[in-house]
Structure formats: C-alpha cells, structure tokens
Specification:
The chain contains three helices and six strands. The chain is mainly beta. The mean pLDDT is 89.
Length: 104
C-alpha cells in the first residue's frame, strides 16, 4: 500500500533542492539518499533522493536529475508516497487508510 509521507514545497537555493512538509513519524526511514518515492500526481518512475538534510528544522531534499531551480519548481506541491508493508505495523497501530470507511 502506498502511504503519503511528505509534500514538496518551495525550492531552496539554485541547485534544485526543495523543502518538504514531513507527514511521517519516521522521516529518517523514508528520506535517505537512494530511496525512490512515488508521486501524486504520478511522474514516470518516481523520484530518487540524491541528498537529504535538515536546515532549521526543515527537511531539504535533492533528487536525481533535478539540478536547477527551474526543475525544482516543477515539483512543487507533489505528494511523496512510500510503499508500506502492513505486516510490519505494531499491535494497536493503524494507518489512516485502514480506518477510512469503517463504521463508528
């Protein structure tokens, strides 16, 4: 199952790095160099992280093939999605997608 783990914001600098609104409890497990994330709306083949660093509590990501500010601007507002194995979820822990549609 794909889970939304972040949303791309503004470009930071001239080399195409972007700010990311983190939507996961464990960013270190999702955002590391070499990780490939799917996007919504979809892009061919997803995005592979080339660099990841924190700057004043803001996550900055660089992606392979995104080398300038204009290319980074084209990523703005994309949602970043990661594959999640539901078998690895701890007892009494749920993803929101598992709860949607249930009766209260």
């Amino acid at each position: 199952m794909l889970l939304t783990v972040g949303r791309i914001g503004r470009v930071h600098g001239i080399h195409g790095e972007v700010t990311v609104e983190v939507l996961t409890d464990s960013p270190e497990d999702r955002f590391y160099p070499g990780a490939t994330l799917s996007t919504e709306p979809a892009r061919t083949g997803g995005l592979t992280i080339a660099s990841a660093r924190w700057h004043n509590s803001i996550l900055l990501l660089g992606f392979e093939g995104i080398t300038d500010r204009n290319a980074g601007e084209g990523l703005r507002n994309l949602q970043l999605l990661a594959e999640v194995d539901l078998d690895d979820v701890e007892e009494d822990e749920y993803h929101i997608q598992q709860l949607m549609g249930l009766q209260v």
